[in-house]
Amino acid sequence: MKFNSVDGSDFVLEETGSQPLKEVSDQEIDDIKAALANHGVAVFHHQTLSDTDFANFLSKLGELTFTEGEKHAPDEPRLNVVSNKGRKTPPRSVFHTDTSYVKKTPAFTALKIIDCPASGGETLFTSQYRAYDELDDTLKQELKNSEVLHQVTGINQDEHQLSETETWHPLFLTHPISGKKTIYLSTPERCVAIRNTSLGNEVIRKLYDYATEEQRIYRHSWQPGDVVIWDNRCTLHRADHSAVVGDRVFHRGMVI
Known about the structure:
Blueprint: E1 3-5, E2 12-15, H1 26-38, E3 41-44, H2 51-61, E4 64-65, E5 72-73, E6 76-83, E7 108-115, E8 123-127, H3 128-133, H4 137-143, E9 147-151, E10 166-170, E11 172-174, E12 181-183, E13 191-195, H5 202-211, E14 217-220, E15 227-231, E16 235-239, E17 249-255
Parallel strand pairs: 2-3
Antiparallel strand pairs: 1-2, 3-15, 4-17, 5-6, 6-17, 7-15, 7-17, 8-14, 8-16, 9-10, 9-13, 11-12
C-alpha cells in the first residue's frame, strides 16, 4: 500500500494505488495503522464499500466501538449516521477528538461518504504532534504530568443512560505505536478541569486555541467514493457547515 503526502501536509496521507479496502491483507492493515500512528490522517479514494464491507474492514484495525446515543446506520448497527438532512439550522461543530470522556477511547475514526454535497462541507484536521513539538519548552515542563478531566457533552443524558460520562486523561499522551508525544485535548466544553499543574483551567482554552490555529489546519474536500480515517490520539477534527450546498451524509465507524 502506497501513501503520498496531501498538498505538502506533514500529517495527511493519500493512498495512491486505489486499493479496495475490502480486499486489504494483514500486511496492508499494518501499513494503515503505521501511517495513521505516524502521521494522523489517511485518505482513500474511489471506494465502493457496502456498510458491511466497511464495518468488516474497520474490524481488522481493532475492536469496533459505538458512541452511546448516536443513530445507527440503517443496515449496519456497528456504524452510525452523520447527516445534515432535515435540519433547519446547520449542525454545530468545533474541533474535538471523538468520545474522549470514556476510559477506552476510540483510537481510529473513519467516515465513508454517502451523499456528497455539491459544495462546502469540508472536514478540517489539525496535528497534535505538531502542536506538541512547537509548544514552548517551559510550558511543556510545567504541564508534563498534567491530566485533564473530559466530560460528555451533546448527548441527552435523561434520554440515554450512559455507562460513562467523565474520565481523566494525560494532557501529553505518548502514542503507543509511534512513541511520539501529542497534546490530547478536546473542545474546552468537554475538557473541564486540569490537575498536577500550578496553572489554572484557563490553560486548557489557551492550548486549544493554539492547537487549532489556521496554519495547523488541513481541509478535506469530499468526493464521491472517499473514505477518510484518522487517529484520535494525535489529531483534532471538525466539520465546516458554514457554506454547505446539498446533502452531506456519512456513515461512521470507530475502533477502540
